[in-house]
Amino acid sequence: MVPFIDLTRQYKEIENEILSATKRVFERGRFVLGQEVSAFEDEFACYCGVRFGVGVNSGTDALYLALKAAGIGKGDEVITVANSFIASALAVSFTGAKPLFVDIDPKTYNMDPNALESFLKRRKRKTIKAILPVHLYGLPADMDGIMDIANRYDLTIIEDACQAHGAEYKRKKVGSFGAMGCFSFYPTKNLGGSGDGGMVITDDKKLYEKLRLFRCYGEKKKYEHILKGGNSRLDEIQAALLRVKLRYLDQWNEQRRRKASIYKKKLEGSGVVCPVEKKGSHHVYHFFVIRSKRRNGLQVFLKGKGIDTLIHYPIPIHLQKAYKDLGYQRGEFPVTERFSKQVLSLPFFPELTESEMDEVATQIKTFTEGDVIYKP
Ligand SMILES: *Cc1c(COP(=O)(O)O)cnc(C)c1O
User: Whose CA is nearest to atom 5 of ligand 1?
Assistant: First the structure.
């Protein structure tokens, strides 16, 4: 039996610290927007190399509030990718704006700057306001290419870094490139709490102040509301736990990187394609995603051997029922659509053991033996 992820192993390692952080919050008796949240905001922003952080209740709300703070709303359009978790697009929809998609680079699985450029050339529209690149699976998107285009077309960048805590592009942390960077602290993320949570980071004081208003009823002073904000707060217990875990993030990411290279070695000679690390990109392997032409069969086979896998993601966003209204057709984004039929995420987390990886690799090789390795 190899689980896809086992969070109890990590808990056991840091049990005492987790319990004492929880106790500290209970003893203080303050549960919402207190000193743990502000300390964690400072610590995480500092970790990412920016000045400000605003703790929120989820990654989805981090994206939504960042878009709102950038002034995006009804009548506007935001370009992102269809090869992502649906929240990347939903956040755009919640503002009243419309998500638009471009295809991905077959090497990185992330937004393809060439596709972005040719899309903008073809459809120069004043309604397009922002680009929302996703650092999928923990690998940074091509930020040089995307930022160059954003500058030339005068578009705001808001990064979806929900799968890439600690990832770096040319030695700079993801989330710190755009006007704002958005993170999720959902339990299974590289930095995950014990419930929902998220953060927006920024270097811009004005955006920081806006984000704080949007997160908490538009409240400037107690019971003085200067705009219509909602309730998207991060709570104290989550912040206290995340502060403990932040101290381990680099170590856990290193374990992920080491394990990814072990997987790659063990899978050499099999008929599957392994993830690549682009030069200048520090990959933090939120997922370890392989591709196989016989993906569905491989998944069933592994399941039969007690090995759990997942597919990220089986239906590209533009083909989801929820987005029927956008009118996209099958065939619109060939790489995204082909990959959705080929990708498979293997069991992966920092505490995965060598013998578990051995088991996974051996079974994959048994199934794919003789398959021709193909390139994108
Ligand atoms: C997890 C995730 C989100 C949403 O975060 P939640 O905290 O679950 O709301 C958004 N985008 C991507 C790419 C994610 O992986």
Answer: 59
Token readout for 350 is 């920092």
CA dihedral 244, 249, 255, 259 (to 10 degrees): 120
Whether residue 313 is preceded by a cis peptide bond, meaning omega within 30 degrees of 0, is yes
Give residue for tokens 């040719």. Answer: 118
Task: Report which residue type is found at 287.
Answer: F
Within 6 Å (CB) of ligand 1, which residues are found?
Answer: 58-60, 84-85, 87-88, 134, 160, 162-163, 184, 186, 196, 198
- Which residues on neighbouring strands pair with residue 199, listed in sequence order? 55, 183
Could you say which DSSP state residue 275 is in?
Answer: P
Q: Residue 35 C-alpha to ligand 1 middle, in angstroms?
A: 25
Tell me the whole-structure pTM to 2 decimals. 0.97
Q: Are 94 and 62 in contact (CB under 8 A)?
A: no
State the burial class of residue 207 (Cβ atoms within 10 Å of its Cβ: 0-12, 13-18, 19+): buried
DSSP assignment of 276-294, as one string?
---TTEE---SSEEEE-TT
Q: Tell me how far apart the alpha carbons of residues 20 and 26 are, in angstroms, rounded to a whole number.
A: 10
Write down the pLDDT at residue 48: 98
Q: Which two tokens stand for residue 295?
A: 């993906």
Q: Report helix, strand or coil for 15.
A: helix
- Six token digits for residue 272: 């599957």
Instruction: Specify the pLDDT at position 189.
Output: 98
Q: pLDDT tens-digit profile of 189-198?
A: 999 999 999 9
- Tokens 């199934």, located at residue: 367
- Say how many Å lie between the CA of residue 367 and the centre of ligand 1: 32
Distance 39 CA to ligand 1 centre (A): 23
**Structural tokens at position 53:** 């952080």
Enumerate domains of the chain plus CATH numbers.
Answer: 7-102+110-246 (3.40.640.10), 249-368 (3.90.1150.10)
Please give the structure tokens belonging to residue 35.
Answer: 């000193």
Quote the longest CA-to-CA distance of the chain. 69
